[in-house]
Design goal:
Elements: H1 2-22, E1 38-39, E2 52-53, E3 55-59, H2 69-78, E4 83-86, H3 91-97, E5 103-108, H4 113-117, H5 120-132, E6 139-145, H6 149-152, H7 157-173, E7 181-183, E8 185-187, E9 191-192, E10 201-202, H8 207-220, E11 224-227, H9 230-236, H10 243-246, E12 257-258, E13 265-266, H11 269-283, E14 291-296, H12 312-327, E15 342-344, E16 393-396, H13 402-413, H14 435-449, E17 463-466, H15 510-528
Parallel strand pairs: 3-4, 3-15, 4-5, 5-6, 6-7, 8-11, 11-14, 14-15
Antiparallel strand pairs: 1-2, 9-10, 12-13, 16-17
Helix pairs in contact: 2-3, 5-7, 7-8, 13-14
C-alpha cells in the first residue's frame, strides 16, 4: 500500500509539472516553492487548486526600488515558485507572467471596492481589463477582493458581497467561473474565543456579511482566505506562548495544547488557528468550505530590544517547518490529511512599509534579489528549489557573550569535529586572534560541513546566517559550494527546528490576545497533569 501511495504521488507530481508548464487557463503581500503539489487524501473543494497542498508567495511592492516585472518573473522561475499572490492586477506584471505556467491570485485593492461594489458594469469592466485580457496565457486562479476589510475597514464591509457577486457575474458571462474563484482574505482576528478551537466563532457583529459570504463560497467552490500570523500571537503573549509552539518545533506531550471538548492535541499555533476557522464556520452550519492561508510568515529582522525574536534563525525555522508541514499534507487535528494551501509572506523585503522595524523584513529576498537568509528545506519529502542556501555563511552573532562564544567554539573544534588547525598561530586564519573571528570560522565550517541543514547555525543562539563572505586575505571560508573541513560528522548541540516531518497583520487585535490568554491557561493546566 505504501508503494502504491508513493506511485500515485509520483503520477500526481508529473501531472502537476505538465499542467504547470503548458496549462493556462486569482493588503497583502515568504519562500521557495515546490514544483510538486500533493493531492489531499480528503478533498474539501471540487476545483484545483484549492484541494491540493502547495506553498505560494505573496509579492508586495512597498519598496524604494521595485524590481522590474521581468526581474521578478526571472526570480520566480529560477526558484521554481509556481504559485503567487499579487496585491493588485498590474498589467505589466501580468504580461511578464504570460506563458510561464505560474498560478496567480490577483487582487482588487481596498480602494477600488467602492466603485466595484456599487456597479455591476464597473465590475464587468474590471474583469475584462484585468482577467479576460490576460487569460488564458496568464494562469489566473482566483481574485482576492480587498484584504482584511472586515477588521481594518469595517465601514466598507457592506461593499464586499456586492463586489464579489458582481465580479462573479462577470466571470460567468465570460465562461471563466469554473476556473477562477472569488474570495476575500480575512484577518484571523475575526475569530473569537479561538482556543479551544472547538469553541471558536466569528465575531457575531459580522454575521450579516459572513453568513451570505460563506454561502457564496460554498456555492462557487471557493476557499475561505485567512491570514495567520503566529509571530504576532507569540509577541503579544509576552512569553506566555512558548516560542517552540509558534515555530512548529516538537513539543513534549505534556506541553501540547489539548482541546478539552474534542481531546484533539495541538502542537503549533498555525493548526489551532486554522481549525478555529473550521469550527467557526461549522457554528454557522458551513462544513464544506476549505481554508486557504493567504498570508503567514516570520520576520528575519527587527528592533533588537523590542523584537529580539525577529531574526534569521526563527524565520528559517518557521518557514522551513511550515513548508514541511503543508507539503507532507499533515493537515490539522480536525482535518488530518486535508491540504491547506498556504502563501508565505513575502517574496521581497519592503523597505518603505510603515510600522515597527520588523514590518520591513518579512521577505525571503531583498529588492536586489539577494537572499535575506538561508531557507532550509532538507528532509521535507518533496522536490524544492533550494538556491537560497548558496553563498551563505554562518558567523558569530555581533554582541554575543564571549564566554558563550568560547564554549561554542570549543564544542565546534571538539565534539563538532571541525578541523580548527587553520586557527593556530602561523596559519591562515589565526588573525584576527579574537574569539569572535575564530568562532566564525568554526561555526561556518560546521554549518557547511553539515550541509547547511536547519539548526546547524544556531550554537545556543550565538551564531547567525549571513550572505556576506567573512573571508579575508588567505583565510577563505566555505560558502558557495558548501565546502568545509570536518573531521567527521556530529549533531549540533542545540537545534532550532524539527528534524522531521493588515492589510496584513493587525498587531493590536484584542481578540488575538484572548486566544493567547486562553491558550496559556490551557498549556499551564496540561503542564501540571
Amino acid at each position: 500500500m505504501a508503494k502504491l501511495h508513493f506511485f500515485l504521488l509520483l503520477l500526481l507530481a508529473a501531472a502537476e509539472a505538465i499542467h504547470g508548464e503548458d496549462g493556462s487557463h486569482a493588503d497583502r503581500d515568504k519562500t521557495l516553492v515546490t514544483t510538486l503539489s500533493v493531492h489531499s487524501t480528503v478533498s474539501l473543494c471540487q476545483f484545483y487548486p484549492f484541494d491540493w497542498a502547495y506553498i505560494g508567495v505573496n509579492i508586495g511592492t512597498a519598496m524604494s526600488s521595485v524590481p522590474a516585472a521581468t526581474q521578478i518573473t526571472t526570480l520566480l522561475r529560477s526558484q521554481n515558485i509556481r504559485h503567487i499572490r499579487l496585491y493588485d492586477a498590474d498589467p505589466g506584471m501580468l504580461s511578464a507572467l504570460a506563458n510561464t505556467g505560474i498560478r496567480v491570485i490577483i487582487s482588487v485593492p481596498n480602494e477600488q471596492l467602492l466603485a466595484i461594489g456599487n456597479s455591476n458594469a464597473t465590475a464587468a469592466k474590471w474583469v475584462a481589463r484585468n482577467v479576460a485580457a490576460h487569460y488564458p496565457s496568464v494562469n489566473i486562479t482566483a481574485i482576492a477582493v480587498g484584504s482584511e476589510v472586515l477588521s481594518t475597514l469595517p465601514n466598507a464591509a457592506p461593499l464586499i458581497m456586492p463586489a464579489m457577486r458582481y465580479l462573479q457575474n462577470a466571470l460567468v458571462a465570460a465562461a471563466l467561473d469554473k476556473y477562477i474563484k472569488i474570495s476575500t482574505p480575512h484577518s484571523s482576528s475575526i475569530i473569537l474565543d479561538s482556543f479551544p478551537p472547538s469553541q471558536a466563532f466569528f465575531n457575531r457583529s459580522l454575521d450579516p456579511v459572513l453568513v451570505p459570504m460563506l454561502k457564496f463560497l460554498q456555492s462557487t467552490g471557493a476557499p475561505l482566505m485567512l491570514n495567520v500570523y503566529p509571530y504576532y500571537d507569540y509577541m503579544r503573549s509576552n512569553g506566555v506562548i512558548p516560542l517552540d509552539y509558534a515555530l512548529f518545533r516538537p513539543l513534549p506531550p505534556n506541553k501540547e495544547a489539548v482541546d478539552a471538548n474534542t481531546l484533539l492535541h495541538y502542537t503549533n499555533v498555525f493548526d489551532a488557528v486554522v481549525d478555529a476557522a473550521y469550527f467557526a464556520m461549522a457554528y454557522l452550519n458551513v462544513t464544506n468550505v476549505p481554508v486557504m492561508v493567504t498570508e503567514t510568515g516570520w520576520p528575519h529582522k527587527g528592533d533588537a530590544s523590542a523584537e529580539p525574536d525577529a531574526n534569521n534563525d526563527n524565520a528559517d525555522t518557521y518557514n522551513s517547518n511550515l513548508i514541511r508541514h503543508v507539503m507532507n499534507v499533515t493537515g490539522t487535528p480536525k482535518h488530518p490529511g486535508v491540504a491547506v494551501p498556504t502563501f508565505i509572506y513575502e517574496l521581497y523585503d519592503e523597505d518603505t512599509r510603515p510600522g515597527t522595524a520588523s514590518e520591513k523584513y518579512w521577505g525571503l529576498f531583498d529588492m536586489n534579489g539577494i537572499p535575506a537568509y538561508a531557507l532550509h528545506l532538507t528532509g521535507s519529502g518533496v522536490l524544492l528549489a533550494n538556491d537560497t542556501t548558496n553563498q551563505t555563511y554562518c558567523v558569530a552573532r555581533e554582541g554575543a557573550d564571549e564566554k558563550m562564544l568560547q564554549a561554542a567554539l570549543d564544542w565546534a573544534c571538539g565534539p563538532g569535529k571541525v578541523d580548527c588547525s587553520v586557527l593556530t598561530q602561523g596559519k591562515p586564519c589565526y588573525d584576527p586572534d579574537t574569539v569572535e573571528d575564530h568562532a566564525t570560522y568554526a561555526f561556518n565550517a560546521y554549518y557547511h560541513g553539515m550541509g547547511m541543514g536547519s539548526g546547524t547555525c544556531y550554537f545556543s543562539g550565538v551564531a547567525v546566517i549571513t550572505t556576506t563572505d567573512p573571508s579575508h586575505g588567505s583565510c577563505v571560508y566555505g560558502g558557495k559550494n558548501g565546502s568545509a573541513l570536518l573531521n567527521g560528522t556530529s549533531l549540533a548541540p542545540s537545534s532550532n527546528s524539527t528534524a522531521d516531518s493588515g492589510s496584513r497583520r493587525a498587531v493590536g487585535d484584542v481578540t488575538s490576545f484572548v486566544r493567547i490568554v486562553v491558550t496559556a491557561l490551557l498549556l499551564s493546566v496540561v503542564a501540571l497533569l
